[in-house]
Specification:
single chain, about 400 residues, six-stranded parallel sheet, about 25% strand, elongated, binds MU-OXO-diiron
Length: about 400
């Protein structure tokens, strides 16, 4: 892919990774991804903003052929999908200074063994002039590592946001042209990457609110030339109230837990609660993460296996605990054959969640009428709690 102009003297460089289906050996990428770098040609100096994943190095180096010099190589984030090609770029442009936050400098030395004398660290709010263009560096820690920063190009009013506001979609579109599709991908990205740091991200959004941002150029996905909607979406995901939704991640071995799930689903709907089911044996874990962005209630539904929860239910619970969604209520339902410690085990896995735990419903074997009535009571309680929170 050739470099492409996004504004006067500003170019997209990078790679479309159509084939990648997993990130960090954890995160599903149903639509692949992109690694975006940007070249800014000032009247006196030239800056390259970020690089690409090492697997795509050759594409970036080809795009840099004919570039006369790089004075500054801006590294917003030390994670290797953006920084991993810095050493190869420095081989081609040995006089370039790597511009990074002080914390990023240490991480880039640890991860990539970049020589210390190659760096220029920048303080929060510091600027570098390229002649007729001015780069302002804004520290935005924990989006989603501790060292992250963004760059505001003052004259063009472009925010280069790296992972912030990013989305994993490989497409030939340079700019967002299908907002619905990008909304879904950006929400998935937020859920999987950013949600655990909601508090810090809220502070960073506040920090950016006084900037006049005409365009957001992230390091994954397409460029926002009408950025207001994605900024509004982030505000909602980060600090909006949870929605009147119960998420039911479930697994069933012989059908008993599934009967309970179906009964609870129906009962919740009768009580005016929206429901989302995720069969953990087959679900896209990214879809579950997305649902957790808005859910007010999580009900983990599992049979008992070897005296504890099914490993898939344990995995979903560990994931939810790690992602720290804004859910306010949690319960556990499921079946067992002769005993076990399913509730105790799962309860020990949710220390990060600020939830009120609602009375679990466990049944022996196939659910009895009394068990189904207990599920109706749980549904009624969830409906009532949502009403009291003003969600329904
Ligand atoms: Fe796209 Fe956190 O790297």
């Amino acid at each position: 892919m050739h470099k492409r102009q996004i504004d006067s003297k500003i170019y997209w460089l990078g790679a479309l990774d159509w084939d990648r289906r997993l990130f960090d050996s954890l995160i599903p990428l149903p639509d692949g991804t992109t690694y975006n770098a940007y070249l800014i040609e000032g009247s006196e100096r030239i800056a390259l903003l970020d690089t690409v994943d090492p697997s795509m190095t050759d594409q970036l180096l080809t795009q840099l052929e004919g570039v006369s010099k790089i004075d500054f190589l801006i590294s917003h984030h030390a994670e290797q999908d953006h920084s991993g090609t810095i050493p190869r770029v420095l081989e081609q442009f040995p006089d370039a200074k790597v511009v990074a936050s002080p914390k990023a400098k240490g991480m880039l030395i640890d991860l990539l063994r970049i020589p210390e004398n190659q760096f220029r660290t920048v303080a929060d709010g510091e600027t570098i002039s390229l002649g007729d263009k001015t780069l302002k560096f804004i520290h935005t820690p924990w989006v989603h590592w501790p060292e992250t920063m963004v760059t505001y190009l003052e004259e063009n009013r472009i925010l280069f946001s790296c992972d912030f506001y990013g989305s994993h979609i490989a497409t030939s579109d340079l700019f967002v042209c299908d907002e619905g599709r990008v909304y879904e991908a950006a929400k998935r990205y937020f859920a999987e990457i950013m949600m655990p740091f909601r508090g810090m991200i809220e502070k960073n959004i506040e920090k950016l609110q006084d900037y006049d941002i005409r365009m957001i150029a992230p390091s994954h996905g397409q460029i926002y030339d009408r950025p207001a909607w994605i900024m509004d979406a982030y505000r909602d995901w980060v600090s909006g109230a949870p929605h009147n939704i119960a998420v039911l991640p479930f697994v069933s071995m012989h059908g008993s837990t599934r009967i309970m799930v179906d009964h609870l689903e129906s009962s919740l709907i009768k009580h005016g609660v929206r429901v989302e089911l995720f069969n953990l044996a087959v679900t896209d874990i990214g879809k579950l993460a997305m649902a957790l962005v808005d859910a007010a209630t999580i009900v983990v539904c599992t049979p008992t296996v070897l005296a504890g929860p099914h490993p898939l239910a344990a995995y979903a619970t560990i994931l939810a605990n790690a992602l720290r969604p804004k859910a306010k209520f949690l319960s556990i339902i499921g079946s067992y054959g002769w005993g076990g410690k399913t509730v105790e085990t799962l309860a020990g896995m949710i220390s990060n969640l600020k939830v009120e735990v609602l009375e679990p419903v466990l049944c022996k074997g196939v659910p009895s009428d009394a068990d189904l009535e207990a599920l109706d009571r749980l549904a009624a309680t969830i409906g009532q709690k949502h009403k009291e929170e003003g969600l329904a």
